[in-house]
Amino acid sequence: MAQLPSPKMNSRYVLAVLQWATSSLKYGIMAYAREANWTFSFMDNPDDYPFGSRQIDGLLVLAKNKRLSENFRLPYPNAKIVDLKGLLQVSDGKVHIDHERVARMAADYLLGLGYRKFLCFTCKQGEPDMTRLRCFCRYLKSKRMMVDSLILAHWPEQTVINPGDFQDLVQRKIKKTGLPLAVFALEDSYANGFIQTVLDMGYRVPEDVAVLGLNNQREICELCRVPISSVDVHLSRVGYEGARLLDVLMSGQEPQTRCIVIPPLTIERRESTELEARRDKTVGAIQEYIRQHFGEKIAIKEVLRDLHLQPPALSHFRKALGHSISKEITVVRMEQARHLLSHTDYKIDAVARMAGYTNTPAFCRLFKRLHHATPAIFRKKAQSGSVK
User: Which of 196, 202, 248, 318 has the smallest number of Cβ neighbours within 10 A?
Assistant: First the structure.
């Protein structure tokens, strides 16, 4: 007679209530949940469970606004709560993006492209958009640049429902600032709406109007009529650090800090800001697919299938870049691994998984062969400043 398995001891029961999310944010949370062996789930609609549960040990919460953010303590009285946006007054800890550094990164990038006239665009007056807008405008004014803002009282779909109204607003701003104009849109969906509007008005992107988005949501950025350059605010790290802070709190320990601020990662450059980004469409599509899926198991036949490409695309890619698609996957994964080793204290096992490797020893062997150092030694050198 088969013996029944023993129940898992000291399991943590954790929910992530995300009223806005991207795949990278969820990926970071799931990476830590697996490492910590939690019993875990996402909750898409908390209204489905109005009475909550006393069995929940922890909540990760990203609420759309302050009103919604105050509704979690009462139904989950035994749960530690970590806020992933910085809105909650009742949270035990907070992890959020460094909004000032995001604004400065965007401004410095656009300045570096030679622009001297700027517009910051958002569709809402709530936080964190207004903080980002103020920081962006204040920083550029300190550089004696011309900068204006455009704040709509509606969501970006209004650019389709009433296109004339939005076009009139944009035209007035362009008349005031002049061309060429660099626009920082505070979400990728806003950037998408803005780009479509100026294209319909007869302007060229980026020759007349360059547009930079925020959050690097590839499903939006890559499918816009002009692919959108975007600030990657490192949402996967927000998720991972939030989950790790929650784990410390649930264990009864006092964390080093109850408020963790995450700097932005990089700017993904595409055609909405840079003419030279208009590269070979097939090669570009493959590269973007790899950057979107590097954390997963990638089979070459799936790349071709998902992008509706034929086998000759493999040799075309190799001829264009000088290496195979498999090599490109390794390049992207190692880039992610080096960043995590240099800027976090994540365990090597977590770094391997977040870089797309399920076998940690195999990852370590490959890393050592490519970088002539183990991941641990590379981290020590990188964090001491001896690796450039």
Answer: 202
Q: What angle do CA 152, 153, 155 make, to 5 degrees?
A: 80
Asked whether residue 319 is domain-assigned, the answer is yes
CATH number at residue 57: 3.40.50.2300
In order, the DSSP letters of 134-163 are: HHHHHHHHHTT-EEEEEE-SS-TTHHHHSH
195 with 205: CB under 8 angstroms?
yes
Q: Which DSSP state fits 80?
A: E
Rounded distance between C-alpha atoms, residue 247 and residue 144, angstroms: 46
Of the candidates 42, 89, 86, 35, the one whose C-alpha atom is nearest the C-alpha of residue 64 is 86
Strand duo 229-232 + 266-268: pairing: antiparallel
For residue 40, count CB atoms less than 10 angstroms from its CB and return exposed for 0-12, middle for 13-18, buried for 19 or more. buried
Task: With CA atoms as reference, report the closest residue to 225 among 211, 242, 245.
Answer: 211
Domains held by the chain: number: 3
The CA-atom distances, in angstroms, between 43 and each of 40, 217, 347 are 10, 21, 27
Directed axis angle between helix 375-384 and helix 360-371, to 10°? 60
> Does residue 7 lie in a domain region?
no
Are 139 and 265 in contact by the 8 Å Cβ rule? The answer is no
What is the separation, in whole angstroms, between the first and last Cα of the chain?
60
Residue pLDDT, tens place only, 343-386:
888 999 999 989 999 899 999 999 999 999 999 999 999 888 76
pTM exceeds 0.90 for this model = no
Taking each helix axis from N to C end, the angle separating 375-384 and 325-343, rounded to the nearest 10 degrees, works out to: 50
CA distances from 186 to 106, 131, 137 (A): 10, 11, 13
Three-state SS for 243-258 is HHHHHHHHCCCCCCCC
At 321, list the tokens: 């870049």
SS3 state at 18: strand
Instruction: Please report, as a single letter, which amino acid is at residue 14.
Output: V
Is pLDDT at 2 greater than 70 in this prediction? no
By residue range, what is the domain housing residue 194?
99-232
